[in-house]
Amino acid sequence: MTLNVQRALRHPSFVIGGIMVLLMVACAILSLFGTPYPVAEIDIPNKLAAPSSAHWFGTDSLGRDIASLLLVGSQSSLLVGFIAVGIGLGVGVPLGLLAAARGAWVEEFVMRAADFTFAFPALLSAIMLTSIYGPGLVVSIVAIGIFNIPVFARITRGAANAIWSRDFTTAARAAGKNQFEITLEHVLPNIASVLIVQATVQFAIAILAEAALSYLGLGTQPPQPSWGRMLNEAQSQMFQAPMLAVYPGVAIALAVLGLNLMGDGLRDLMDPRLARQR
Predict the structure, then answer these.
(1) For 170-218, how does the pLDDT look when each residue is reduced to its tens digit (9 = 90+)?
(2) What is the pTM of this model?
(3) What string of DSSP letters covers the chain?
(4) pLDDT digits (tens, 9 = 90+) for 225-252
(5) Full residue range of the structural domain in which residue 40 is found
(6) What is the CATH number for 70?
């Protein structure tokens, strides 16, 4: 189902969530062209400075500008989210479509493989990959991406099975179309809205997972800023400068909230039954 722009603009959850997500994307894009201060610039004499016109959110224990760190930190969150969700969509969706189309032992094999992958959450996968390749942003992306594959595979298989039981797919088979053609022409377009909504949810989860991995030292490494690592570095200053933990925490919370609100709005707007009620 296509998204009606006028109806979308009247949906408060979608509008608020969309604005919050656009602000996050805008911050990441603007930080590519410049920040108030270089993120690697250390200014010990001005460490733990209070918010001022020179430093909007103050400075950290090394004298780095907090606003600049937050702006550049959004890049890591968005990069991990986009690529990790892309991995889940690119691998999980075809597997789910294959399982629904072929059924029998193929479906059983794909679903059992998905169950096995669920035994390795992003954190555990990151720990295993770190022991082999060392910590880094790529490790976070791969670990979260692997976790997303079974999520999209199961969602796709369930939604596709419902479409395969519909009369129009039976008619398509009677007309001589093969499984591949029916999947591309009928099944995938009819489950696209479900996948889009799930992608926004997984994007929010990816941001949380990246922050957690960076907090533990397994994700983004210095000198690249990360919201999770900012939280880790703020631990030693909790009583002296508690706002060092508040700023990245609020950034993570707003990013996740915005994606969840936008996902809820998309679900309402793309579900024909809910659309008729509005």
Answers:
(1) 888 888 788 888 888 888 888 888 899 899 999 999 999 889 888 888 8
(2) 0.88
(3) -PPPHHHHHT-HHHHHHHHHHHHHHHHHHHHHH--SS-TT---GGGTTPPP-SSSTT-B-TT--BHHHHHHHHHHHHHHHHHHHHHHIIIIIHHHHHHHHHH-HHHHHHHHHHHHHHHTS-HHHHHHHHHHHH-SSHHHHHHHHHHHHHHHHHHHHHHHHHHHHTSHHHHHHHHTT--HHHHIIIIIHHHHHHHHHHHHHHHHHHHHHHHHHHHHTTSSS-TTS--HHHHHHHHGGGTTT-THHHHHHHHHHHHHHHHHHHHHHHHHHHH-HHHHTT-
(4) 889 889 988 888 888 888 888 999 999 9
(5) 5-275
(6) 1.10.3720.10
